[in-house]
Amino acid sequence: MADLTKPTATATAVKKPAAPQKKGGNLIATLAPIACIIAGYVIWRFVLGNESNFKIKDPGTDFMSKFWPNHKGPIGAINKMYEGGIVVPILIGSLLVVLTFVVERLLTVAKASGTGSNTEFIRKVQFHLANKEIDKAITECDKQKGSVGNVMKSGLKKYKEMISNTELTTDQKVLNIQKEIEEATALELPMLEKNLVFLSTIASVATLLGLFGTVLGMIRSFSKLGDDSGGGGEAAKELSQGISEALYNTALGIGTSAIAIIMYNVFTTRIDGITYGIDESGFTLTQSFAANYK
C-alpha cells in the first residue's frame, strides 16, 4: 500500500488567490441605479410634465412650482401619468434600472454561454480525451470560450500536468484536477450571478411602490372631493380623474415588476444550464483521468 503521508502534503496544494474584483463592474452597479432615478425624474418633469402638454400651465415661480409644476388638463393619455404624483419618477427610474441590468446581464450571460452548444463541446472533449489528445481538447476550449470552456481549459491544463507527475497516486492526481476545477468555477459563478439582486429586489418593490403611489393619489382625490362644496357632477368628475391618475402608479409598478420577474427567471434558467455544463465538465475530466491513467 502506498504511503499517503508525503503525497497528501503535495496534493493539498496552496489555493490560488482569488482574482481581484473588477472595479468597473462595481462602479456600474453603484452608479447605474442613481443615474436611472435621476433620468426617471427628468423624463417625468421635462417630458411628461412639459407645459406644452397641458391646457393650463402653472404660473408659479417658487421652488415647488419649478420642481413639481401644478399643470392642469393634460393633452393625451400618456401625459396624464405626470399627475400621478412624485412616486411616478421613482417608478420610471426603477423601470430604467431593470432595463439597464437586463441588457447588462444579457451581454454577460451570452458571453458566458460560449460560441456553441456546451453539450456538443463536452462531447468533443470527451472524444479527444478518450484518444489521449489533450492539446486538441485544449484547442476546443479556445474555440468554445465562455464559462464552461474556461473551466474545462483550467482543468485540462492540470490534467496534462498530472499525466507527467510521478509522485502522486491516481486518486491524488484526480483530487488535484478536481480542486483546479473548483477554483476555476469559483471565479466564473460570481460573474454570472452578479447584479441579479437588482432584478429580484425591484420585482418585489416595484409593485409596492405602485400601490403606495396609488394610495397617495386616492388620498389626494378624496381630500379634494371633501373640500369641494359645489358637489354634484363636477365633484364626481374630479374624483374619477383623480382615481384614473392614481392608477397609473399601479400600472407602472406592476409592469416593471412583471418585466423584472420574467427576466430574472430567464437569467437564472440560463445560469443553471451553464452551471450544469461546468459540473459535467468536472465529471468528464476526473472520470477520464481515472479511467485512462490508472
List the helices and strands and how they pair.
Blueprint: H1 5-11, H2 23-48, E1 54-56, H3 63-67, E2 72-74, H4 87-112, H5 118-130, H6 134-144, H7 146-163, H8 170-193, H9 196-227, H10 232-292
Antiparallel strand pairs: 1-2
Helix pairs in contact: 2-4, 4-9, 4-10, 5-6, 5-10, 6-7, 7-8, 7-10, 8-10, 9-10
Task: Please summarize what this structure is.
This protein is mostly helical and 294 residues long. The chain is built from 10 helices and 2 strands.
- Kindly, what is the distance between the CA atoms of the first and last residues, rounded to a whole number of angstroms? 15 Å
Give the tally of β-strands: 2
Radius of gyration: 29 Å
Outline: rod-shaped
Helix content: over 70%
**Spans of at least 5 consecutive residues with low confidence:** 1-21
Strand percentage, roughly?
under 5%
Please, how many helices? 10
Q: Order of strands across the widest beta sheet? A: 1-2
- The chain-level structural class is mainly alpha
Order of helices and strands: HHEHEHHHHHHH
Mean pLDDT value: 86
What kind of sheet is the major sheet? 2 strands, antiparallel
